[in-house]
Amino acid sequence: MSAVLDNHGHGDHTLDDHHAHVPTGWRRWVFATNHKDIGTMYLLFASTMLLVGGAMAMVIRAELFEPGLQFVTPEFFNQLTTMHGLIMIFGAIMPAFVGFANWMVPLEIGASDMAFARMNNFSFWLLVPAAVMLVGGFFMPGGAPSTGWTMYAPLSLQMGMSMDSTILAIHLMGASSIMGSINIIVTILNMRAPGMTLMKLPMFCWAWLITAYLLVAVMPVLAGAVTMTLMDRHFGTSFFNSANGGDPIMYQHIFWFFGHPEVYIMILPAFGIISMVIPAFARKKLFGYASMVYAIASIAILSFIVWAHHMFATGMPVTGQLFFMYATMLIAVPTAVKVFNWTATMWRGSMTFETPMLFAVGFIFVFVLGGFSGLILALAPVDLQLHGTYYVVAHFHYVLVAAALFAMFAGYYYWCPKWTGVMYNETRGKIHFWWSLISFNVAFFPMHFLGLAGMPRRYADYPMQFADFNMVVSIGALFFGVAQVYFFFFIVLPTMRGKGEKAPQNPWEGAEGLEWEVPSPAPFHTFETPPKLDATATRIIG
């Protein structure tokens, strides 16, 4: 028992043999309670799901390379678009950011581990059967659901048995998210090193603290929506069945009350990573720290009152349209504060452009583009024309694929020397950045024009007038997909195997924070005695 107490920074700090022991073999991973191991497992799981979801995207774009049906039936095409969305959101982006949180939050606040180590293990392992059930839908009678990732009624009430496995998978992933969030909240609020007040927290921890509250608030709402769908399917209720007095529009309200905060759940941790990377490579303090904290909190609060901007086409009253239109445009204000502060941090800094900084600057570029198209879609009269077109696909891929993924890449290149103990190959990193940035824009920018010309989403075929842009989009998407395979095989795998130049304790001249006060690679146990901090709470004294 004393060993467990020691691990959490309490009691007697004499190391006994049992305490110093690092588990080996399969037990280390299956029964993992160390935050670093669990963070690694989350990141590997997310990477696997990213490749699975990316393979689906490649099939979708191969089908749309030219008009007519080439490779798949329209029904299977819709199954692919549905599962691509669900896998990328619940299987790739969210677990990847939880992996970053597991690895970095205890290191950044000087904690020995996460607050609830065994729950941390459980929240990870729930994801594996959930992923199997999601992907397994393709092998069930009738194939995977073809409802779109939103799972709108009445389509979701008419699907085969794979809809039920998808609902169960979402429940498991939701439970995993809630447990992970509670763990992060308790860790940040209760386990900070003495002297690290909330307003000295690293920005990544602030972003995750607020994200975790969002997750705890909205995942039960999604659970309610899919449970009501399940009841309609099997237990004779009529929540969404209009033939028996139900209301399919009610499903949309419940779903988007979850769905819009979910969008910020996928971008706020990215803001946190970028707010760590830019000061390090500009060699300056983050400009306007307090305003950044308030901006993240404002975005989170406002995200609860804008859900129906996804529903302008459902025929809501003009008063409702105006409210949701103005509330949506209001979110642009705290978001612009963040972009301004990042730019001000770089202003007159001693900037160098190693790969993490390239991805951070690339993030700002694509995020601002995605934000502007979001403002356009916030205008109800414009949205009525563009709803359900490729313009919307372009918008959310700019914000989610580009912004969230680029932030993850920035975070990976920034912290992987601390994780693996070796430096990644800088030339390969820069190739990955330029290859990704160019191919991404070739793939998704023309979608704006396709949407403005009226090409609808989720269609396996299209008229001849859309052929040229679709061919360009498919080529760009293929190159973007290959770039990520290059990243995993030529950058991630060599660093995981320890191939490369040995990383110093702090490889970045301008990086500050407690994570750079431990050796590279970070030892299995860190901060068993809470560190004594200097006045800035970024360095250990003594």
From TrEMBL:
Primary location: membrane
Localization (cell): Cell membrane; Membrane
Role played: Cytochrome c oxidase is the component of the respiratory chain that catalyzes the reduction of oxygen to water. Subunits 1-3 form the functional core of the enzyme complex. CO I is the catalytic subunit of the enzyme. Electrons originating in cytochrome c are transferred via the copper A center of subunit 2 and heme A of subunit 1 to the bimetallic center formed by heme A3 and copper B.
Name the UniProt record assigns to this protein: Cytochrome c oxidase subunit 1
GO biological process, one term: oxidative phosphorylation
Entry's EC annotation: 7.1.1.9
Catalytically driven reaction(s): 4 Fe(II)-[cytochrome c] + O2 + 8 H(+)(in) = 4 Fe(III)-[cytochrome c] + 2 H2O + 4 H(+)(out)
UniProt superkingdom: Bacteria
Record-linked NCBIfam families: CtaD_CoxA
Membrane topology classification: Multi-pass membrane protein
Keywords on record: Cell membrane, Copper, Electron transport, Heme, Iron, Membrane, Metal-binding, Oxidoreductase, Respiratory chain, Translocase, Transmembrane, Transmembrane helix, Transport
Residues that span the membrane, as ranges: 42-62, 82-103, 124-146, 166-189, 201-223, 263-282, 289-310, 322-344, 356-380, 392-413, 433-451, 471-493
Record has Translocase as a keyword: yes
EC primary class: translocase
Similarity annotation: Belongs to the heme-copper respiratory oxidase family.
Pathway in which the depicted protein is active: Energy metabolism; oxidative phosphorylation
GO cellular component terms attached to this protein's record: plasma membrane; respiratory chain complex IV
Gene3D superfamilies for this protein: Cytochrome c oxidase-like, subunit I domain
Domain Cytochrome oxidase subunit I profile: residue ranges: 29-534
Taxonomic lineage of the native organism: Bacteria, Pseudomonadati, Pseudomonadota, Betaproteobacteria, Burkholderiales
